[in-house]
């Protein structure tokens, strides 16, 4: 196991930067976060007990982790890997999706211990916090920070428990730039995994690579998790096309949003007594009006757009300039700018 950084409990960071103070006419709305004591925040609706257990999880030799900073392609790769493990078949319900590719920090360590295998574990942790084993495998997906920021904003607005329905992008942009959003600083996470991109048990890819050449990178993912999965796709073109189809954004938007809406509408008692749901997930889904999703099916947009370059519709010229400057400053001395030279 890796050495953990010393845990220091600090007072909550001030979320307001100079110049961010709201006017008398307009009150600033901030997402509902909680400090973890580990140097990063998580959503207030998450269970600290689940997070603590996640950090202490000891990986099994056949574990496959899908790791990203939030809103960088996690759901997409969960569906690709899930289809590979299920021989081209898509997930048929949100519960199946959430228990076969469990979100470690949200659902807790038991969700990983008890998941159906072969399966994959989702995480948003920086490298220095991830449960690490040289025998386990880690797929890390990076996305350009501009699209990530915009997508994370919409995600935060959409999840009921963030209490951010009326939040403004300009305010959220400042939080993102300061690393004061849940799971911490975007650049800290990216750089921590980039340093391990050549480790034999790490596959480092970008969202944009996967978008530009889905077939090639689906085969790379298949080969990484096991040669037999790549052989399976190479020898069966229909199976390869099915994996790509059932993990596509059009399919996920149509089916996963519907499945999540059905899950959100389940009665509280049914959630609490469901045999397949880990305790950490029950805690969220049964959270009433502060839960994970709105019970109105028309409000669910778990999968939104999935396009590259959507930031151009949201960032102001000044915000774009500031993000470029931050990107250059934080990635100086690395090859990271080459990853997104045509997108930044």
Task: Describe, in plain words, how this protein is organized in 3D.
- 44% of the residues lie in helices and 7% in strands.
- The chain has 17 helices and 6 strands.
- The strands form 2 sheets. A 4-stranded parallel beta sheet has the order 4-3-5-6, with helices on both faces. A two-stranded antiparallel ribbon has the order 1-2.
- A hairpin with a 5-residue loop joins strand 1 (33-35) and strand 2.
- The chain has helices at 48-55, 74-85, 94-100, 104-107, 109-113, 145-158, 169-178, 186-194, 207-212, 214-225, 227-234, 237-246, 249-264, 268-272, 279-285, 317-331, 336-339, and strands at 33-35, 41-43, 64-68, 121-123, 137-142, 202-206.
- Helix 10 crosses helix 11 (227-234).
- With 344 residues, it is α/β, with parallel strands linked by helices.
- The longest helix has 16 residues, at 249-264.
- The radius of gyration is 19 Å and the shape is globular.
List keywords for this structure.
344 residues; alpha/beta; four-stranded parallel beta sheet; two-stranded antiparallel sheet; globular; P-loop_NTPase; Sulfotransferase 1C2
In terms of topology, how is this protein built?
Layout lengths: L32 E3 L5 E3 L4 H8 L8 E5 L5 H12 L8 H7 L3 H4 L1 H5 L7 E3 L13 E6 L2 H14 L10 H10 L7 H9 L7 E5 H6 L1 H12 L1 H8 L2 H10 L2 H16 L3 H5 L6 H7 L31 H15 L4 H4 L5
Parallel strand pairs: 3-4, 3-5, 5-6
Antiparallel strand pairs: 1-2
Helix pairs in contact: 2-12, 10-11
């Amino acid at each position: 196991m890796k050495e953990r950084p010393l845990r220091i409990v600090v007072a909550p960071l001030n979320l307001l930067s100079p110049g961010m103070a709201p006017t008398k006419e307009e009150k600033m709305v901030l997402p509902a976060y909680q400090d973890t004591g580990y140097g990063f925040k998580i959503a207030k609706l998450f269970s600290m007990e689940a997070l603590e257990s996640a950090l202490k999880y000891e990986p099994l030799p056949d574990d496959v982790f899908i790791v990203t900073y939030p809103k960088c392609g996690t759901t997409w790769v969960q569906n690709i890997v899930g289809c590979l493990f299920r021989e081209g078949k898509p997930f048929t319900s949100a519960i199946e999706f959430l228990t076969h590719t469990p979100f470690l920090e949200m659902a807790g360590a038991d969700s990983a211990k008890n998941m159906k295998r072969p399966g994959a574990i989702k995480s948003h942790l920086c490298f220095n916090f991830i449960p690490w084993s040289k025998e386990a495998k880690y797929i890390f997906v990076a996305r350009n920070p501009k699209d990530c920021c915009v997508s994370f904003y919409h995600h935060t607005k959409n999840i009921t428990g963030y209490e951010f329905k009326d939040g403004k992008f300009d305010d959220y942009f400042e939080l993102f730039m300061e690393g004061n959003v849940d799971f911490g600083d975007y650049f800290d996470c990216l750089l921590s995994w980039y340093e391990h991109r050549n480790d034999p048990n790490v596959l480092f890819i970008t969202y944009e690579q996967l978008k530009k050449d889905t077939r090639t990178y689906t085969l790379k993912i298949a080969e990484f998790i096991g040669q037999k999965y790549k052989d399976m796709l190479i020898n069966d073109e229909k199976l390869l096309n099915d994996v790509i189809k059932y993990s596509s954004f059009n399919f996920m938007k149509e089916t996963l949003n519907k499945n999540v809406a059905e899950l959100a509408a389940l009665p509280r008692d049914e959630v609490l007594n469901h045999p397949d749901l880990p305790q950490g997930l029950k805690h969220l889904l049964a959270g009433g009006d502060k839960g994970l999703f709105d019970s109105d099916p028309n409000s669910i947009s778990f999968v939104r757009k999935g396009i590259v370059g959507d930031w151009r519709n949201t960032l102001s010229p000044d915000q774009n300039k500031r993000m470029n400057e931050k990107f250059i400053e934080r990635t100086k001395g690395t090859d990271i700018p080459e990853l997104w030279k045509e997108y930044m």
